[in-house]
Backbone:
């Protein structure tokens, strides 16, 4: 267990755990709302902000925060107008963010060595300041979700009904997208812009198959996320491979096993003729 | 409920015009619903029944005209109005069970950010009343059509609203529960205002005290105007023609004509 001796490894594990908690919660909302591609768009737009940070000489992670929040607001506002097709807006925001990023990076003076760590993540090299920034964002996200848990659930499940009940559904949707944006910023450090959606959605996509309760889905996603990040970290340490990519591979392999396993198990679990139905059996496979 | 509140107007629609995608769907609608009324709405497919309910709920914006619910412009009526939609628009895979879905009917009444014990008790009693307490733990997406219809009804009723709008709630319902359903409505009509969209003319004529036929325009009548022959005729003819021959006198029937 010599990896535990390194300070940067301990910090990496801590960040991984915090990020997995946020990722499990927000990722569950992303999956049940079917806004995976909106999240993809928000994370790629962040590249524009990273470029701007390099260009103007401020922290790229602040630039990423600004750009992904702007993307969330644009997509949220336009998505609520029925005339515009939401998928077009999602695609355009995605591309414009990347294009701006490329331009800014090219224009930037000096050396942009750690650019790759924003694209593919590097949990081992997070500066202290950024670690605190991640903790603060996490606290904000947790606070908002704790206050609005039921409201988000209602809007995600049946928006029209929530509106009839007097909930401000447009604002709630917008807040949720902003939380996705902040989550993306946290995850960029770990797996990078390009791999963010995988880490955001794979734990939740596995968890949704196991339960018919949203908060349990969140709990399972969090545990899976912690397994993926710590497992991926350890493997990458021993094999000397990029940590972000290994984390995603661990997640993806688990996903494939879970889907495959589910197909096989549901055959055995299905009640057969003559089988006495137990009241406790869940209807979900 | 006091006698005086029976004379309050709960829904008042004046000169309402609605267009969707540049097509006029509702034309010059005038409708007054009083506290304690049981209004039945009939009309051909595409006549605009669902659209009218959505206007009352504030989900569709009128092109022209005014809609007042409980003396206020719509939007602020969440706690008092409940809705059984014709089609449920939720995701089949959403991780939620029947109990939690019905609990969402209490969204407008929650005291804090979460549901209270009182809310849970309300869910329990409504599930018992609608004979679906056994479904409580089932995932909502896996229900049969009729089971889902009952759950939608439970979600609407759990808030004990002052106005209940129902859009073809007996779709997919078996005949045994249908009889019980109308018994429940009868009981509910003592404590709240009911609006029921239905293609089941017999049921409408037996239970409501006021009816409206909607086919872009509206014709409103009182209990005594409903005979099977008239309904059959209204249903088949365009509202225009009916307005022009025998029905002119019953448009916007005054309160005095209703039973009670
Ligand atoms: N979102 C929409 N956009 C455009 N047109 C619409 C929309 N919703 C409904 N319509 C149109 O409005 C008309 C009235 O529809 P509505 O659903 O109110 O009819 P309905 O009386 O409820 O019919 P049914 O008996 O079939 O339920 C229809 O012609 C329909 O095509
Ligand atoms: Mg309809």
Residues:
């Amino acid at each position: 267990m010599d990896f535990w001796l390194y300070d940067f490894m301990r910090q990496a594990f801590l960040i991984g755990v915090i990020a997995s908690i946020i990722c499990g919660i927000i990722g569950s909302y992303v999956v049940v709302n079917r806004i995976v591609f909106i999240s993809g768009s928000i994370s790629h737009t962040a590249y524009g902000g990273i470029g701007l940070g390099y260009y103007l000489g401020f922290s790229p992670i602040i630039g990423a925060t600004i750009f992904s929040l702007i993307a969330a607001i644009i997509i949220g506002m336009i998505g609520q107008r029925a005339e515009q097709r939401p998928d077009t807006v999602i695609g355009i925001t995605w591309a414009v963010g990347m294009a701006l990023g490329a331009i800014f990076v090219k224009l930037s003076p000096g050396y942009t060595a750690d650019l790759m760590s924003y694209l593919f993540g590097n949990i081992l090299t997070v500066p202290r300041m950024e670690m605190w920034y991640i903790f603060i964002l996490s606290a904000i996200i947790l606070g908002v979700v704790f206050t609005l848990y039921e409201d988000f659930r209602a809007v995600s499940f049946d928006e029209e009904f929530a509106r009839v009940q007097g909930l401000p559904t447009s604002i709630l949707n917008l807040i949720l997208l902003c939380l996705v944006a902040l989550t993306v910023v946290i995850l960029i450090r770990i797996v990078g812009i390009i791999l963010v959606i995988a880490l955001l959605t794979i734990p939740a996509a596995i968890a949704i198959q196991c339960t018919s309760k949203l908060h349990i889905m969140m709990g399972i996603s969090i545990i899976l996320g912690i397994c993926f990040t710590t497992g991926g970290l350890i493997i990458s340490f021993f094999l000397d491979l990029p940590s972000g990519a290994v984390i995603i591979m661990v997640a993806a392999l688990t996903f494939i096993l879970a889907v495959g396993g589910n197909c096989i198990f549901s055959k055995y679990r299905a009640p057969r003729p003559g089988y006495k139905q137990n009241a406790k059996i869940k209807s979900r496979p | 409920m006091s006698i005086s509140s029976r004379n309050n107007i709960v829904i008042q629609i004046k000169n309402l015009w609605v267009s969707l995608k540049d097509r006029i769907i509702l034309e010059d609608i005038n409708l007054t619903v009083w506290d304690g009324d049981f209004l039945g709405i009939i009309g051909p497919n595409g006549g605009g029944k669902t659209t009218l309910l959505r206007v009352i709920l504030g989900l569709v914006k009128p092109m022209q005209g005014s809609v007042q619910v409980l003396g206020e412009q719509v939007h602020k009526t969440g706690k008092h109005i409940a809705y059984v939609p014709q089609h449920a628009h939720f995701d089949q895979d959403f991780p939620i069970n029947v109990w939690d879905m019905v609990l969402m009917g209490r969204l407008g009444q929650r005291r804090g950010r979460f549901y209270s014990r009182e809310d849970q008790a309300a869910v329990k009693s409504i599930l018992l009343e609608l004979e679906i307490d056994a479904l409580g733990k089932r995932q909502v997406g896996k229900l049969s059509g009729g089971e889902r219809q009952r759950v939608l009804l439970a979600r609407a009723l759990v808030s004990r609203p002052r106005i209940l709008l129902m859009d073809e709630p007996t779709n997919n319902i078996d005949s045994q529960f249908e009889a019980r359903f109308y018994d429940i409505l009868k009981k509910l009509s003592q404590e709240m205002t009911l609006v029921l969209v239905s293609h089941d003319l017999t049921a409408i004529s037996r239970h409501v005290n006021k009816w409206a036929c909607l086919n872009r325009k509206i014709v409103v009548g009182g209990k005594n105007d409903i005979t099977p022959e008239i309904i059959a005729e209204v249903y088949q003819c365009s509202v225009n023609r009916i307005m022009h021959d025998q029905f002119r006198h019953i448009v916007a029937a005054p309160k005095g004509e209703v039973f009670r």
In short: Residues B 20-21, 25, 43, 45-51, 86 surround adenosine-5'-triphosphate (ligand 1) (CB under 6 Å). Confidence is low (pLDDT under 50) at residues 237-260 of chain B. Chain B has two domains: 3-226, 233-260. The first strand of chain B starts at residue 9 and ends at 20.
